[in-house]
Amino acid sequence: MLDLSTLNENQLAAVEWNDGPLLVLAGPGSGKTRVLAYRLARLIDATQDKHFKVLALTFTNKAAAEMRERVGDLLSGSLQRTLLTTFHSFAADIVRQHGQHSGLRPDFTMLVDDGDRHSLLEEAIAAVEDHSTRSQLSSERLLPLVNRLTENNVKPDEALSTLEAGGVQETGALASVYRSYRRLMIERNALDFPGLMAEALNLLETRPNVKRQIQRIYPYVCIDEFQDTNQTQYHILCHIVNPATRNLFAVADDDQIIYQWNGASPDRLRALEKDFRVSTIQLPDNYRCPPAVVALANKLISHNFERSEGKLALKAHRPHSEDEVIRVQRFDTFAGETSWVAADIASRPEPYRSNCAVLARTRKALEGVIAALEAQGLSGYLGARKNEFESAPLQWVHAILRLANARSSRECLRKANKAFSALEGIDLDTGDVISAASTMNGDYLRAWIAAVLARDAIAADTRLLVDGPVRALVDRLDFWNFLSSAFAWLDRLPEAAPTQDTIFDDYPSEKATWIELTQEICAQYGRDEVTLHLLLQELDLRSKSALPAAGAIPCFTIHASKGLEFAHVYLVALIEDQLPSWSAVKKGFDSKEMQEERRNCFVAITRTQETLTMTYSNRMDGWAKSPSRFLTEMEVI
Ligand SMILES: Nc1ncnc2c1ncn2[C@@H]1O[C@H](COP(=O)(O)OP(=O)(O)OP(=O)(O)O)[C@@H](O)[C@H]1O
């Protein structure tokens, strides 16, 4: 029996919600994530005699993994009846299963590397006929536009009219580049992240059976952080929720929309109200922050005018403390500011140090903090996304698996050869391997094995690996055996070649990340269900950042800190042009951008559980700077 006694009255009402659309609208630290976990567990507990599954979508793998753990802890066996996954994984499943209707094969790859996206876009630009127009276009300039069109659900054949309506110049050429780019992705059997969403939506729109099947399997749909959905994702939601029952349970905070540049918008909450006629439950009680921080947060956010009507102010639930909760410090230079922050952290005993985090609007400011922490003998951990493995050992493992999955991918073969050359010192010519593959049914991996084994100089240990586990990968897709043998070989490799320089430096940490990610994927799907396609696609959707080293101080951009909480928060570089950003300052006090910057500041300060330290300086990078307007709005200066 599920214990609901720790929930407050509003939380309980949300958890006990049965049928029909509901919006749980609440501020930070009010238990939204908690409510969602309880609601999933309760729904499953109350329908033990039923077989349907509940679908819960999140925006990050971390949030999905945490939610799985919480729901599993609340009700054992509940995960068998829940699909708790990210929006991107869910879309990838749809495309993998039904993409053949749009010309995509199930082994499609993800364009995770920005370099690959730029090359494809350059190809699309090269197809523009008029030379003088073509010379004005660059992938650097056009990629943001392509993203925006895709995220806003603009179909390739609607691009011209959309661009014309937006008053954009060179509309004909831009629309043709957009159409070519979307077509090239399908031809190459490769999708970028916005393209993945767009293709999933396209299948839901054009194949009624696909959406009916999803609606039948998942009669209840829940979504975390609804405010982050872009237009394309919102349309996906509209299709997967059964229109007869409208069982959509959305958890959101309009004051935490900080992905406007990614297509999120306050309009989405208004659309939800209009399209689903949702009931709303608010959770005003804040359990995370000290009352002094709650007071600052309420003051700050009251300056935004584009908020949900009737949104309740945060109500502090934690007791007042006699200790100093809020500190605000001014410095002459940014270097002085970061040195002080680092020294302050270094002077603290445990457990303070293990429970603090430094936040900033930009990664560059955090790099300054990390250097200052190192000068104090501490280390800092930069929480930021990493799309690809970077060490030769992991690049080789990844490239061989990708080649096993897509046997005629020139790009995977090229990457495998490059990494193998770094590891073994043997250069294989990509063109020669491709020519040899023509007598092997075009199987580049089979030809690669033959090319390696034909070399006399190859070490005996490597020969055994290539002739055994790599060959078994080609013949039987035995990738688990390949992985364990490849890692055992890589572990021995530095001993066999002690003179090798830096190529193994990052191997231990990248191997640990690989193991962590594959375990996470197996936990999500069950090891027996993870095919090679699925493993590779899920890896593409996840960040390859190293796990933090023990004792490293977490340094997060505000975007990366969303959903997290820390006992002691240091928010640095609170100056105009940083927070708010330069472009928001340029757009003016009543712009959408300025409101988003205010929400960034709101998200940052509401990560605090015990103390909040805010710092700013008179000069940064040699330029005179003014204190952030948000300090004035919070009435702390
Ligand atoms: N009823 C409650 N009683 C005690 N503590 C609670 C209660 N509800 C939530 N909390 C605590 O408040 C904190 C914030 O909860 P949670 O992370 O679910 O909030 P959230 O609304 O999702 O926050 P954010 O929007 O900032 O991600 C957690 O430490 C949680 O354990």
Give a short synopsis of this structure:
The chain has 637 residues and is of the alpha/beta class. Helices cover 51% and strands 13% of the residues. The chain is globular and about 75 Å long.
Instruction: Kindly report the name of the CATH homologous superfamily of the largest domain.
Output: P-loop containing nucleotide triphosphate hydrolases
Radius of gyration: 26 Å
Uncertain spans, ≥5 residues at pLDDT below 50?
none
Strand content: 5-15%
Note the total helix count.
28
Secondary structure category: alpha/beta
- Bound ligands: adenosine-5'-triphosphate
Overall 3D shape: globular
Between the first and last Cα atoms, what is the distance in angstroms? 52 Å
What is the number of domains? Answer: 4
State the major sheet: 7 strands, mixed
Number of strands: 17
**What is the second-level CATH architecture of the largest domain?**
3-Layer(aba) Sandwich
Binned, the helix content reads 40-55%
Question: What is the CATH third-level topology name of the largest domain?
Answer: Rossmann fold
CATH top level label of the largest domain = Alpha Beta
Rounded mean pLDDT is 93
